[in-house]
Amino acid sequence: MAPSPAQVPGPSAGRPSHTGAPPPGAGAGTARPGDLPALHDILIGVALPALTLSPRHGQLTGTGFEGVFLAGRRLLSRCFLRVAGREPVPLHGRTAAADRADFLGVLRAPGDTGPDPGLLVERTREADGTERITLRSSANRPLRLPVELALGTDLADLGAVAAGRPGPELAASVHGTGLRWAHGDGTAVTVAADPPPSDALAAAGLLRWEAELAPGDRFVLTLRIRTEHARRRQTPGTGRPGGHALADAVAEGDDPRLAPLLSASVADLRALLQRDPAHPADVHLAAGVPWRCGPVTAEALWAARMALPLGTRLAVTTLRALGRTQLLGGGPESGRIPGPLRDAGPLLPPRCTGVEATLAFPVVLAEARRWGLPEQDLAELLPVAERCLDWLRGAVDAGGFVPDPWPAGPTRAETQAHAHRAAVLGADLLDACGRPGGDAWREWARELGERFRARFWFDDRSGGRPLLARTPDGHPLPHLGGWAAHLLDTGLTAAGRSAPGLLDKAQTERLARLLAAPALDSGWGLRGLGEKEPGYNPFGHRSGAVRVHETAVAVAGLAAAGYENEAASLLRGVLDAAEAFDHRLPEMYAGERRTTGAVPVPHPAACRPAAVAAAAGVQLLTAVVGVRPDAPGRTVALQPLRSAPLGEIRLSGLRVAGEPFAARVGRLGLGMVEEAAPGLQLGV
């Protein structure tokens, strides 16, 4: 599948294949063909389909992977500020909100003889390209300063920019209070300035002002970007989603990191929302910015599952979008949801995201029902879930396992966990909806568990470990990594209870110890591959880097299985990492061992924000409180971590049964429901 302009494969999707030399004059930092630009030091503002990528100094120089983008096209590549002929000295750049970055710089006022800067330069850049520049004077005399902005664009596609192949900068023309650029395909972009410039030089893409500042005064300049003929590239459904797909959840407590983590997680999830172009009423999450902002993916479904405490609407629309792609026709493919292959690291061939989505579909639908999915939505989506289960029944190989990619790939332990969970929760769903087949699926899951424990558990003197996979010829791959967390992810079945898992009690206890051991727990979260395993690479996206999604799954699974100490250790590590990343968790970061005084090392090409990482912040905190809903049964239970690893914690603004829900866990680990839907009873 070729990447679209708005969906460039990132590390978790394989490398894009590009040809051609970098443009003349490209800087040394231009990506080589096939490389991806480093993102770890770029400030990303996102409100899809709008996106800004800014270096920390705030200047858009027209080189490298930076600019203002809309629907995968760069609207502005250069926005370079000079005051009195000089660049501001950059002091600070930060992401102030999901869709906004702030920059701070200073300049010495002309004529100053001392070292103190007399001019403060503040810049605020929003995802839609609106930029506000403020000059503040602390000089003791009036100043008259020439202000210049050099602007430019190539209207290049994001994929070409990422590959180091941007187009030539377009010629500008003076237009109204700013400049205008036109592309040969009929697309044009206009930058308007307020106040209007005193001079405009189209040939140089230059706007000029004369700023007059009295002592203590300020000069404010605002730029706004407008596109023309955008409908020729976009359908009406690609605008910002409206309504309230996600609730305004709030975290409070003894740990000061709780509130900013949940706030940033919800903000990032909202920023990643995008409409289904063919069905504008439906929204789903982009997998990650900037590489994967294309059609709905398996990551979007996992993220919607973790975000169920914020309401069921996102899960409904994501399931609906995936359901429309389901293959029909009655053959062996019938019922499967298609999806691209994604790189799985050096040990295994690429996996199929369609298999993952097919197995996740009945799971998310069953759990959404527990959180309060409306009956009409359940009735619409249930046939799709049944067809997913029908495909699963015929998807097993001669050994009784599900290959991935299907039908001739290796059998991965993680895929068997997804299949087992689909069968158990699918059975629960069928029973609840009065559909036949529930008992047969529970028996199928029981038999899969027996086969799994016999074929996917490697016994040794230390107590054994699960196998990563078996090759098509049956060869075992015993490499241990964060993927094993999915073996503990059982999901919620009737009355909010945890579903039975693949492993027996002794194996579950052994796996809990392995997940908490230093070989897997880096101190910042779970490594994708154990530190002592062959092929370990702390920056390998599937061979050693910490993936936040897997760590959140491990915390929830360990907590549900009763291994609170192990869950608490991983939880604290991720919270510490989140603090180092300003509470905006990337999809992954390096699996370097944590040492005293160290900070987590960013992965240069990780998506940030990423759907599963943002949703992981929600899952981590709800796992601490242990919310177990059963909206159809009109009950909700709390199973908090009794050790209260974060002290007192209160979550409010959640949604259970379509109504606001709030719960508190005290310092002694006792939970209390403070707000719930009328008639909702506290369960056990």
> Strand pairing plus helix content: what structural class?
alpha+beta
CA radius of gyration? 26 Å
Counting copies of identical and different chains, the oligomeric state is single chain
Low-confidence stretches: 1-31, 232-238
Mean pLDDT: 90
CATH architecture of the largest domain: Alpha/alpha barrel
Which labels suit this protein?
684 residues, 12 helices, alpha+beta, eight-stranded antiparallel β-sheet, disordered N terminus, Beta-galactosidase, Chain A, domain 5, five-stranded antiparallel β-sheet
Textual characterization of the structure:
The chain has 12 helices and 35 strands. An 8-stranded antiparallel beta sheet has the order 7-8-9-10-17-14-13-12, with no helix packed on it. A 5-stranded antiparallel beta sheet has the order 3-6-11-16-15, with no helix packed on it. It is elongated, with a radius of gyration of 26 Å. Mean pLDDT is 90; it is low at 1-31 and 232-238.
Give a short overview.
The protein has 684 residues and is an alpha+beta fold. Helix 3 packs antiparallel against helix 4 (313-323) and helix 3 (298-306) runs parallel beside helix 5 (353-371).
Layout of helices and strands:
Layout: E1 42-47, E2 50-55, E3 60-61, E4 67-70, E5 73-76, E6 78-83, E7 89-97, E8 100-107, E9 119-126, E10 131-137, E11 143-152, H1 158-162, E12 172-175, E13 178-182, E14 188-194, E15 199-201, E16 206-213, E17 218-228, E18 250-253, H2 258-271, E19 273-276, E20 279-285, H3 298-306, H4 313-323, E21 341-342, E22 351-352, H5 353-371, H6 375-395, E23 411-412, H7 413-432, H8 438-455, E24 457-458, E25 465-466, E26 469-470, E27 476-477, H9 505-516, E28 546-547, H10 548-561, H11 564-580, E29 588-589, H12 611-625, E30 627-630, E31 635-638, E32 649-656, E33 659-665, E34 671-675, E35 681-682
Parallel strand pairs: 31-35
Antiparallel strand pairs: 1-2, 2-4, 3-6, 4-5, 6-11, 7-8, 8-9, 9-10, 10-17, 11-16, 12-13, 13-14, 14-17, 15-16, 18-32, 19-20, 21-22, 23-26, 24-25, 26-27, 28-29, 30-31, 32-33, 33-34
Helix pairs in contact: 2-12, 3-4, 3-5, 3-12, 4-5, 5-6, 5-7, 6-7, 7-8, 9-11, 10-11, 10-12
